[in-house]
């Protein structure tokens, strides 16, 4: 048995290289009974290429083996256990001296992509696999990893909310009928196209995520003629342009979201000509004939079924 001087591994007497680390054995003096063998019958090895690492050397070795050329890779890296040791000396590709010329020719020859792929597969299969148990993470490392993942997820969600974004809604036949506009993750406006003519006719505005105002274009001329204001999601006021001339004519006020009073001021009049009084959303009084002094010539009171029950006007 031969003992490797580098790693101490036992090898067969006929071995040329250590099977553990690849170190080449020095030539042993011929035994007395073999002295009659002529020197030309002894085989010698030559290094045909030196590569930076085992992986590249194995690819070249696979190429030679594909042409039935015996070869092996030597490196002072303890059989691949310490790859950094190949930095200085490299990984040596050795062949028998008699095959050196043809081996060099094969390595210099160009191959097809299919041959290169096959050679790489064979090289990977020939490379010894390193078995090692997976390193277990400490509890602190696991907690740190989970915390980092959560923080990255939150940062991504936060970045998605930054800036202005618009989301469109479409009908089944492809017409856009609504658009939601967001700023920094909060809705600031909602617009609609009710008659699908390609122009918005409803505008709804939000502040801090709460509804504050909405406008309606009821004659679809591109200009709002009905405006609502809101507080805590409930209506507070209503202004309506009944003749669509651009000037509001009816002004309504609400309490707790329930209609309380409606004043008629035709075409921007500075005084109310007709006033309607509501109780719990039910009409109870109608004042008519208002003047600039705030006086009304007629007051009619109604029951819950809109039947007049009294009036200050003289009987006809």
Task: Report on the architecture of this protein.
Helix 1 (54-66) crosses helix 4 (113-126). 20% of the residues lie in helices and 34% in strands. The strands form 3 sheets. Strands 6-7-8-9-10-11-12-13-14-15-16-17-18 form a 13-stranded antiparallel sheet, with no helix packed on it. Strands 3-5-4 form a 3-stranded antiparallel sheet, with helices on one face. A two-stranded antiparallel ribbon has the order 1-2. The chain folds into 3 domains: 1-31, no CATH class; 46-126, no CATH class; 157-311, Outer Surface Protein A, domain 3. It is an alpha+beta fold and 316 residues long.
The residue fraction in helices comes out at: 10-25%
Indicate how many domains the architecture comprises.
3
Order of helices and strands: EEEHEHEHHHEEEEEEEEEEEEE
Q: What's the main sheet like?
A: 13 strands, antiparallel
What is the percentage of strand-forming residues?
Answer: 25-35%
Number of strands: 18
Number of helices: 5
Strand order of the largest sheet: 6-7-8-9-10-11-12-13-14-15-16-17-18
C-alpha geometry: rod-shaped
Task: Give the name of the CATH architecture of the largest domain.
Answer: Alpha-Beta Complex
SS content category = alpha+beta
CATH-defined fold name of the largest domain: Outer Surface Protein A, domain 3
Low-confidence stretches: 34-38
Distance between the termini: 140 Å
CATH class of the largest domain: Alpha Beta
Instruction: Determine the mean pLDDT.
Output: 83
Radius of gyration: 48 Å
Helix and strand topology:
Layout: E1 2-3, E2 10-11, E3 45-51, H1 54-66, E4 71-74, H2 86-89, E5 91-96, H3 100-108, H4 113-126, H5 139-161, E6 164-170, E7 176-183, E8 186-192, E9 202-207, E10 210-216, E11 226-231, E12 234-240, E13 250-255, E14 258-264, E15 274-279, E16 282-290, E17 296-302, E18 308-311
Helix pairs in contact: 1-4
């Amino acid at each position: 048995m031969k003992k490797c001087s580098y790693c101490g591994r036992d090898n067969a007497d006929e071995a040329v290289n250590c099977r553990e680390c690849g170190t080449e054995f020095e030539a042993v003096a011929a035994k007395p009974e073999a002295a009659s063998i002529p020197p030309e019958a002894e085989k010698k090895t030559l290094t045909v290429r030196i590569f930076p690492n085992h992986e590249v050397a194995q690819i070249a070795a696979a190429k030679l083996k594909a042409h039935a050329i015996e070869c092996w890779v030597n490196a002072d890296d303890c059989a691949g256990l310490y790859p950094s040791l190949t930095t200085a000396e490299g990984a040596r590709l050795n062949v028998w001296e008699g095959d050196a010329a043809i081996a060099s020719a094969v390595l210099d020859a160009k191959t097809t992509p299919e041959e290169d792929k096959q050679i790489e597969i064979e090289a990977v299969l020939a490379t010894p696999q390193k078995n090692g148990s997976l390193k277990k993470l400490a509890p602190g490392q696991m907690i740190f990893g989970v915390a980092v993942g959560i923080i990255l997820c939150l940062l991504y969600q936060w970045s998605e909310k930054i800036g202005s974004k618009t989301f469109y809604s479409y009908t089944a036949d492809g017409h856009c009928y609504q658009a939601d506009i967001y700023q920094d993750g909060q809705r600031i406006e909602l617009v609609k196209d009710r008659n699908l003519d390609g122009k918005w006719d409803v505008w709804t505005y939000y502040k801090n995520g709460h509804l504050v105002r909405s406008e309606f274009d009821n004659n679809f001329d591109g200009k709002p003629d009905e405006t609502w204001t809101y507080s805590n999601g409930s209506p507070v006021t209503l202004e309506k342009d009944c003749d669509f001339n651009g000037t509001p004519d009816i002004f309504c006020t609400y309490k707790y979201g329930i209609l309380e009073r409606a004043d008629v001021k035709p075409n921007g009049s500075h005084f109310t000509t007709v006033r309607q009084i509501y109780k719990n959303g039910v009409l109870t009084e109608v004042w008519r004939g208002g003047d600039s002094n705030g006086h009304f010539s007629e007051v009619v009171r109604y029951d819950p079924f809109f039947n007049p029950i009294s009036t200050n006007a003289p009987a006809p």
